[in-house]
Amino acid sequence: MRFMVMVRATADSESGRLPTREEFERMGEFNEQLIKAGIMLAGEGLQPSSKGARIRFDEGRATVIDGPFAETKELIAGYWLVQVKSKEEAVEWFSRAPMQPGWTLELRQVYEVEDFGDNVTPEMIAREEQLRSRA
Which residue, 5, 23, 45, 53, is the most exposed by fewest CB within 10 angstroms? Predict the structure, then answer.
């Protein structure tokens, strides 16, 4: 099963403060452990919301709202995408992440096609696989 592990934003991450060399080294060592264990599929830090946008949909219209966004606690500063055997395994790994005091990680399981049951036909699955193979 796949999990998205999201790093919640802080005032520091929203200010654009970059990690120190030591923080980069510790995170690099942790990522290396994830890669060697064969569970890390992707992982990146995100720039502050001041460089982002939101797109809100209302009654068939899309409205673009430029950042920054006020509620830091609702923002994401980075993520990992991992493949593990269970939520417990993901929690075990990320309980050891080299995070700063006060930082929060949120783990969310990614839907797999079989989770949707009969709402997804074999034809829809084949089309999606074909489109992804082109990317």
Answer: 53
pTM: 0.88
Mean pLDDT of 14-42: 96
Judged by phi (left if over 0) then psi (alpha if -120 to 50, else beta), residue 131 lies in: alpha
- Domain count within the chain: 1
Considering only CA atoms, which of 88, 118, 83, 103 is closest in space to residue 3?
Answer: 83
19: domain CATH number is 3.30.70.1060
DSSP of 24-85: HHHHHHHHHHHHHTT-EEEEEE---GGG-EEEEEETTEEEEEES--S-GGG-EEEEEEEE-S
Cis ω before 68 (30° cut-off from 0): yes
> What mean pLDDT do residues 78-103 have?
96
Residue 54: per-residue pLDDT: 94
The domain in which residue 109 lies consists of: 2-134
